[in-house]
Amino acid sequence: MSAILNLEEISVRRGDKTILGPLSWQVLEGQRWVVLGPNGAGKTTLLQICASLIHPTTGKIEILGQQLGKVDVFELRTRIGLTSSALVEQLPSDELVIDAVLTAAYAVLGRWQEKYDLWDESRAMALLTALGVRELGDRTFGTLSEGEKKRVQIARALMADPELLLLDEPASSLDLGGREDLLKRIEVFARDPLAPATVIVTHHIEEIPSGTSHALLLKDGEVVASGDVNQVITDENLTSAYGLPISVQSQNGRFFARAR
Asked: Are 160 and 173 in contact (CB under 8 A)?
């Protein structure tokens, strides 16, 4: 399997403080990763690097076979699907939901003078259907609930048929029913052998969808554990990462935790 992401001894500094790294990490084709850890662990910073939105202070990173710093990032970003709270704020509130998804085909925010064919429109509607929000196509993005916006964002992220999918806390702010429905849809998507390599960032192990193959656990910008998800999500590793005794249980590919 070829490497989708290859990070070699990267670090990110802000002033005199190192907020991430040094860290080496590799994501291979077909893998389903989750990145988790407490607040301030460096999860979102790592995702921004993987999305080519920021550069590391030191180290080398290759994304889809292209070395960051030696590639046109605007072209590279068309091959990456991304959801994040920052992206939600950039989407025009008066944009129709169907257009918010369609414009991802050109990696732009806000429809202008691009031309879309019937295939584009059919794919956008199919993705909204797969995420359970087909009926929202004619609504404006600003009128949606937080949960609806997250689903539309994922549809948008998949619109350009990306080779790498990055989801930043896709289930946060959802109620129990909304969370479980969304995780089930992500699980179904992950079973597709043609689905891209996926990296999900979350604070909570309960939000790790079934079908996740690998996990990266961070604390204070450094790696606590990395590898097979069942070997990373353990009592010992979570206790080390979160600083209190934690007991982990797993059932049908899902994980649950509580303090001991």
From this structure: no
**CATH code at position 209:** 3.40.50.300
Phi–psi pair at 116, nearest 5 degrees: -120, 140
Amino acid occupying residue 207: E
Spatial separation of the C-alpha atoms in residues 157 and 107, rounded to whole Å: 10
Residue of 104, 84, 81 lying closest to 163 (CA atoms):
81
Total domains in the chain come to 2
pLDDT tens column, 77-132: 889 999 988 888 888 888 999 999 988 876 667 666 667 778 888 999 999 999 98
Peptide bond into 22 cis (omega under 30): yes
Q: Per-residue pLDDT averaged across 4-29, rounded?
A: 94
Q: What is the pTM of this model?
A: 0.91
Q: Does 16 share its domain with 116?
A: no
Q: Say yes or no: 153 and 104 in one domain.
A: yes
How many Å separate Cα 143 from the centre of its chain? 24
Contact 19, 13 (CB under 8 A): yes
First vs last C-alpha separation in the chain: 40
C-alpha closest to that of 156 among 217, 213, 110, 208 = 110
DSSP 8-state class, residue 209: P
Residue 204 burial (10 A CB sphere; 0-12, 13-18, 19+):
middle
- Tell how strand 17-28 and strand 3-14 pair up: antiparallel
CB contact at 8 A, 25 and 7: yes
